[in-house]
Design goal:
Structural class: alpha+beta
Radius of gyration: 17 Å
Number of strands: 6
Strand content: 35-45%
Number of domains: 1
Shape: elongated
Strand order of the largest sheet: 2-5-1-6
Largest sheet: 4 strands, antiparallel
Helix content: 10-25%
CATH topology: Alpha-Beta Plaits
């Protein structure tokens, strides 16, 4: 099992949710976050003075998938989120040692299906 953690553009969330249905995924966690990378934020004017904002709004998506689903899910996220511009985001993949469904005490792959 792998945990996929993706940071995406806020406007792409609706399209990203379609990935769950496409790949028959049962669980996802979605959070509104702020951060910066290469894009370095943006500047604006407040009362006539230019102000630098170092953080941008992003959506963080976390999901645990079966090993055989990883590449397909990653490809789908990239297909939906990529614009070719700075700020498209990042995807991180982690090994998951085990999972437990609290209600039924199922473990491993059975816990995430």
């Amino acid at each position: 099992m792998k945990k996929i953690e993706a940071y995406i553009r806020t406007e792409k969330l609706g399209e990203i949710k379609g990935i769950l249905v496409k790949h028959n995924l049962n669980g996802v966690t979605i959070m509104q976050v702020m951060g910066c990378g290469t894009q370095k934020g943006w500047s604006g004017f407040v009362r006539g003075t230019e102000v630098e904002y170092n953080f941008l709004n992003k959506i963080k998506i976390e999901m645990v998938v079966l090993d055989e689903q990883v590449e397909a899910v990653i490809d789908s996220i990239i297909e939906v989120d990529a614009t070719g511009e700075f700020g498209d985001g990042k995807i991180f993949i982690y090994n998951v040692e085990d999972a437990v469904r609290i209600r039924t005490k199922e473990r491993g792959e059975a816990a995430i299906k």
